[in-house]
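Late entry, iron/sulfur cluster complex.
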Amino acid sequence: MRADLILLNTCSVREKPVRKLLTRIGELTKHNLSGIIGICGCVAQQEGEDLLRRSPSVGFILGPGQLHRVGEALRAVDQGHRPVLTGFDTETGYDVRTIFRTSSTRGMVTVIEGCNEYCTFCVVPYTRGPEVSRPMETILQEVRSLARNGIREVELLGQTINAYRCPATGADLADLLEALAGIEGLARIRFITSHPRLFDDRLIRVLARHRHLSRYLHLPFQAGSDTVLARMRRRYTREEYLDLIGRIRAAVPDINLSTDVIVGFPGETEKDFRQTLDLLESVRFGQVFAFAYSPRPRTPAARYDAQVPEPVKKERLARLFELTDAISAELNAALVGSTLPVLIDGDSRRDPGDWQGRTEDNRVVNFPKPEATAVGDIVTVRITRASAHSLYGEAMNTGPHRLPVLDGEPSDDRATA
Ligand code: SF4
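Prediction complete; structure with ligand written out below:
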C-alpha cells in the first residue's frame, strides 16, 4: 500500500498514546509506506520541534489550533522545509466547516474548543488552548443541515461544554439546547463533557423540559475525597457534586449518568480511595470511565510529592472496576422485561444478523434484525437479557417498526433501575 500523505491525529490526555505514536511512526518509516508524514493534534502541540528531532521521517507538525493550515504545511514541505505550526489564535477559533462523517445516523458537532479550568492533572489547557465557542447561528445551521440529510442523533462536543458562550449573543448551553430542540427531524441531542462546577439549574430545567434531549449525561467527578479534589483543583466538593446529582435526578428521574474517575492521584490514601468507592456506590452510575493517574508534561500534579506506586494504582483500579461492573450489571438487569425505543446504528459487531443500536439514555442494545428495518430507524425493543455493558432484546410487533421522531411526552414504558 502506498500513500502520498499520512496524517496521524493524536491525543495526549494519557501517556500511552504518545508512546503509541512513536511506535507507529517507526512502523511507517520501516515499511516506507508514506510520502509525507504529518503529525496533528495534541501530541503535535505538546512536543512540537522535539518530535521532528526524534523522528527524522516526520514532515510537519500541526497543532489542533492550526488544522486550517494543512495546505501551507504541505507547500512548505514541497520546498524542503519541515514546518512546525502550533499555538492558538483565539480570534479565528477553529475551522469546522467541513467535517467528514462516517455514521449515517449520528453527527458530532463541536461547539466549544479548549479549556480554561487548569485541573492540576490535565494537559488539555496546554494542548488545546483557551476556550473558544462557535457562534450559535453557525451551529444551528450545521445541525439543521445534518437533520435534513437524515442524521437522527446529534452529539455536541466540547471539553467543558457547559462553559459554552456564543461570541455574538452571549447565549449559553441552555439557550443552544432550547434552540436545537426545535429542529425538525432530530430524534436525540446529546452533549459531552459537562463540568460539575458549571452545571446550573437552568440547564437542568431545559433537560427536564425536552424529551429528545438525551437521557444520558456524562458528569466527571474524578475523586470522592475533598482533599484530592482540592489538589486536583476541581473547584467543587464531594457534597456539592452529590447535591448536583440529587437536583438532576429530581428533575429528570430516568437520566443515565456516566462519569470519569482518576485512581492513584498523587497523595491519594486508602481512605481517600474508599471515599471514591463510596461515592460510586451511592450514585450508581450506568457507566464509569476510570484510569490510573499518569503524570502529564507541564502539569502541576506531575511535580507533586507522594506519587502513588504503580502496583497500588493497579490494585485500586481493579477494585473499582469490580464494583462498577457489578453496579452496571444490576442497572442493566433491572431493564430486562422493559420495552425501549432503540435507534439503529448498524450491524452488531458480534453477529451481522443482529442490529446494534442505542436507547435514549445511550445504552447499547443488540437484537435480531426484523424485516423492513434500516439504519436510522427507531424501533421498540423488548429487553430479554443484560450484561454489565450491553442489553439484548427483540423488536416488538410484526408490522411497521418505525416510530416517529420523539417529541413532547415520554413514549416508552421502561422500568427504570
Ligand atoms: S475541565 Fe476537563 S479538560 Fe479542562 S483541565 Fe479539567 S479535566 Fe482537563
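Residues 115, 117-119, 122, 124-125, 159-160, 195 surround iron/sulfur cluster (CB under 6 Å). Will revisit in the morning.
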